[in-house]
Amino acid sequence: MASVPDCLPRIVVLLSGKRKCGKDFLADALLKRLGTERAQIVRISEPIKRHWAEAMGLDLGALLGDGAYKERYRKQMIEWSDERRQEDYGIFCRAACTTIDRPICIVSDVRRKTDVRHFRETYGTERLRTVRIEASEPVRTGRGWQFQTGVDDVQSECDLDDYGPWDLVLTNEQADAVGVLLERLVKLIES
Fold first, then answer.
1. Is 148 helix (H, G, I), strand (E, B) or coil?
2. Binding residues for ATP, per the UniProt record (predicted)?
3. What class, spelled out in words, does domain 11-190 have in CATH?
4. Was 132 annotated as part of a binding site?
5. Domains of the chain: which residue ranges?
6. Residue 35 known to bind ligand
7. How many CA atoms within 13 Å lie on the side-chain side of 50?
8. 72 is in an annotated binding site
9. Are 112 and 48 in contact (CB under 8 A)?
């Protein structure tokens, strides 16, 4: 295990789930609840999207967002990043972690067993909190999800389907239940 300062990070929360399950929404709400002086969000996809934007002359802000612009390039970004991961499974996790400077780190987009492996090897199991966020296909469809071959049936969406056990599994289907979900997340972090 790599050497990690005792105070940074104290807790690493790994959020996983299918597209449009609400990972980013819950990560943002959790950050707001915890406060930016204590916590931060790290996205494994950020270094991928940064490279893609620079290489292809694309708008990084739009790639980091949650809209049609990103979806146009998603399959190509997945294929490119999978090739890089074959050479070094932790390449994007390490790049994302260079920005960690708070005691609580929320990783909003864990998608592969190798992502979990990287965080376990780097920070140790005692610092990790693994969370699976679930939402039914009809709910995800209502949020704009549409099945896409080469995206929803590949490792980036399916590798953690049989992973477990999770420290916490949340069903994120009702907008008015966000407070309850946040309380469960905070309890997991504070335990």
1. coil
2. 18-24, 143
3. alpha beta
4. no
5. 11-190
6. no
7. 8
8. no
9. no
